[in-house]
Amino acid sequence: MGRQEKTIRILEAALRTFARYGFKKTTLEDIAGELGMTKGNLYLYAKDKRDLYEKSVAHAFREWQERVAEDVEGKKDVVVRFRVMCVKAYAYLSVNEDLQSIVLRDPTIFTLAPREGRFYSVNVAAVEMIKQVLEQGIREKRFRQVDVESMAEFLFSIYIMFIIRAYVKSEGKPVEAIFEAAVDLMINGLLTR
Amino acid sequence: MGRQEKTIRILEAALRTFARYGFKKTTLEDIAGELGMTKGNLYLYAKDKRDLYEKSVAHAFREWQERVAEDVEGKKDVVVRFRVMCVKAYAYLSVNEDLQSIVLRDPTIFTLAPREGRFYSVNVAAVEMIKQVLEQGIREKRFRQVDVESMAEFLFSIYIMFIIRAYVKSEGKPVEAIFEAAVDLMINGLLTR
DNA sequence: GAATGAACAACTAGCCAAAGTGTTCAGTCG
DNA sequence: CGACTGAACACTTTGGCTAGTTGTTCATTC
Description:
DNA-binding; Tetracycline Repressor, domain 2; mainly alpha; homodimer
């Protein structure tokens, strides 16, 4: 097993454990035990406990993003692409219980603005994906000529907003209906008239 | 001075003090001192410290809402109305420093979903205002036939999102550009084609 | 080079007393 | 008679202490 794979195994075990007990309550021995190694060894893969936490969360986010990117690339029509991007990105958390639990315990993971907080680079990559879809739409004259940069950041914020509403604060009338209204508004707002 | 006015005086003094020191650090004697009365007397106007805090914040919110409502009613064209509603509601915080400081110290005041958390009734009233503008637009055939309830909740969430981005986490590229993109997208998404 | 495990440092939990603050209420004031 | 006071009371917070736990380092082993 190469260093690459070992790192992934460690990050996944760490995520699982943090998800179960929360950051404060998990000890490095919990994680090391889960992996059949000693806690000292973890320091070869992360500089401290916090760093291990952030690395494991960032890893889960990158996986998430790759899945969405694959699904988006499977479609060619830009409107379909946009819709798939929305729906898949939104649905992913529901199948990753560890990440869900992490987010629930630590809502500050998500910041409405992409360029702040931890996970800067993951967020920037997400905004990049949105931008590319927007640019395709404009190039093909399906979308209006909007300010791509600002619009992408705005759409990203809407996305995070739904994540927060759906998983961090679950309550109120079905989020699904509002999600539908949102996608409807966004697509109609983008299309040329 | 009637009971009504006295209550307002107390709520305003409370807000000012909470804004200066934060909830934990302000004592009831701070507030009572500001008003030239003793702390025991405050209990005739609120059932406890927390209640006093929430009442004072709710009062500021209602003022805010009334101002926006006035400005909106001054316009007749529904697109202008919509835009004025967005801009004024967004701008108000910048002129109320006390409320700004409160929100900064206690970001959980704003929840993205209107029906949860404290200040339920204030939020519901805001959603109601949005609904009425939407209904006018649809009635006049300027807006598409959207699900008014869901759309209003969605728009409200966008609004809160901007409040949070602008005042709670100030950073990143100018929020103004993104705000413009947002209003642009919303209006275009609503208009009939 | 990867991993260990003992040693060390830093933090946390529990406890206590003292001080501060929120809450109540019998009594005063206008 | 209602608005208000001020002292009494109860609850929470603070700081200082100790013991125990947990994060971090590193010389040594595999």
